[in-house]
Write a structure and sequence with these properties.
five-stranded antiparallel sheet, globular, 12 strands, 12 helices
């Protein structure tokens, strides 16, 4: 029998059933290939940091970083050539064809132990918060009860993907992109600052990228502790001026919703591409959901990374016009990311059983020789890729992306 819940049609009572039978659902996911990419958001695990530096060590490292990062000035959309001057290679190694020094304003004189948001102006000029407009009819019908056998327009719309729902704040605004004269302008890059999973503020900004300056793509793995085959998979694109933009492909939530693996399999969530500031995307995983985060540099040439980035932007633009349902097997974070990677290098990641197990994607790419590493085993590579204590150290600082990568491999 169909049971109704908050604009969703399902065959299960989602949360009460999930809380009673969560162990059984986890066992089913493990046996079926562990498709859920956000299950552990409901049950975040506590993080145990390794080798956390002392306060004095943090102060020394940060002061060294301040001295070594190039100070530049902003002139409209043109930026000083000092952006391309590398830092001290002993502290922040820069390898050929990799992003150089991130921008930094000369006026920044923050105390050593203080974590502050990025300065006003510059590349991180935040726009006023944006909200999505929900048609009055759609908003008013969110809690409307309908006969189960009723066949009307509202009932049928529940089986069609839509961008006009009452979305949660973090999923309210869709990103779009325009590419003109080799410049990709990404609109609505998300930057959320979190006090907790329920208490946060979200802002958006627009950013322009020269496609000739794209250099790298990183695989960002967020495994769910205690469930080795479950993970959320993200990516990040790096540019010659040191900027990184994160890409997270997710199930889109309405207000008050949580991930439900049964509902996801029944096409109960829309798909969303989140183009985010790395401080938002990565700190949501480490600080809020208390998961480990691993960042792997992938072995692709800049022209291949460019093709992947453009393909992802086109996909995000397409979803803004024509929404789709999320599905854990056929339209998820992993399946879409592999599609973009194979766009840049055809058949780089062949489909096999590990492509349907998100938590194994990093080891699979390592076996395919797609993960850059200075050590000889995957276990050592994964240890170097862990960034939790660096994320805690660099916080909201504008050279966050460079700081968390200083010991990546």
């Amino acid at each position: 029998m169909l049971l109704l819940r908050s604009r969703k049609i399902g065959i299960l009572r989602p949360m009460s059933f999930l809380h009673r039978h969560f162990p059984g659902i986890v066992a089913f996911c493990l046996l079926a290939g562990s498709p859920g990419c956000a299950v552990a958001q409901l049950y975040p695990q506590r993080q145990v940091y390794r080798s956390a530096p002392t306060v004095n060590q943090q102060q020394i490292v940060r002061q060294q970083a301040i001295q070594q990062v190039a100070h530049t000035t902003e002139q409209g959309d043109q930026f000083s050539s000092e952006l391309y001057q590398p830092w001290n290679v002993n502290e922040f190694p820069v390898r050929p064809n990799e992003p150089g020094t991130p921008y930094r304003l000369a006026s920044d004189t923050q105390p050593v132990v203080e974590k502050t948001p990025p300065p006003a102006g510059g590349l991180q000029n935040l726009l006023p918060p944006k909200t999505t407009s929900v048609p009055a009819q759609a908003a008013g019908s969110a809690n409307r009860t309908m006969p189960i056998l009723g066949i009307g327009r509202d009932f049928l719309n529940e089986f069609r993907p839509s961008n006009n729902r009452k979305w949660s704040q973090n999923h309210a605004v869709l990103p779009t992109a325009e590419i003109r004269d080799n410049i990709a302008t990404v609109r609505n890059v998300r930057y959320s600052r979190y006090e907790s999973a329920e208490n946060y503020t979200t802002q958006y900004y627009d950013a322009a990228f020269n496609l000739d300056d794209i250099r790298t793509i990183d695989l960002v793995m967020v495994p769910f502790q205690g469930l080795s085959r479950l993970a959320h998979v993200e990516s990040s694109f790096g540019f010659a001026d040191g900027r990184h933009i994160g890409l997270s492909i997710e199930a889109r939530y309405e207000e008050g919703e949580k991930y439900d693996p049964a509902a996801a399999g029944m096409r109960q969530f829309e798909l969303i591409y989140v183009l985010a500031d790395e401080r938002d995307m990565i700190r949501l995983a480490t600080d809020v959901n208390k998961n480990n985060v691993y960042i792997y540099r992938l072995n692709f040439e800049p022209h291949e990374v460019r093709a992947m980035f453009v393909d992802a932007l086109q996909r995000a633009k397409q979803l803004a016009r024509k929404p789709e349902f999320y599905h854990p097997f056929t339209n998820s974070c992993v399946t879409n990311l592999i599609t973009h990677i194979n766009k840049g290098r055809p058949k780089a990641v062949p489909y096999e059983y590990r492509t349907f197990m998100p938590g194994l994607l990093d080891s699979y790419m390592y076996d395919l020789k797609l993960v850059a590493s200075s050590v000889t085993t995957f276990k050592e590579t994964k240890e170097l890729a862990k960034v939790n204590w660096l994320v805690e150290q660099y916080g909201d600082l504008e050279y966050f992306s460079a700081g968390i990568r200083q010991k990546m491999y």
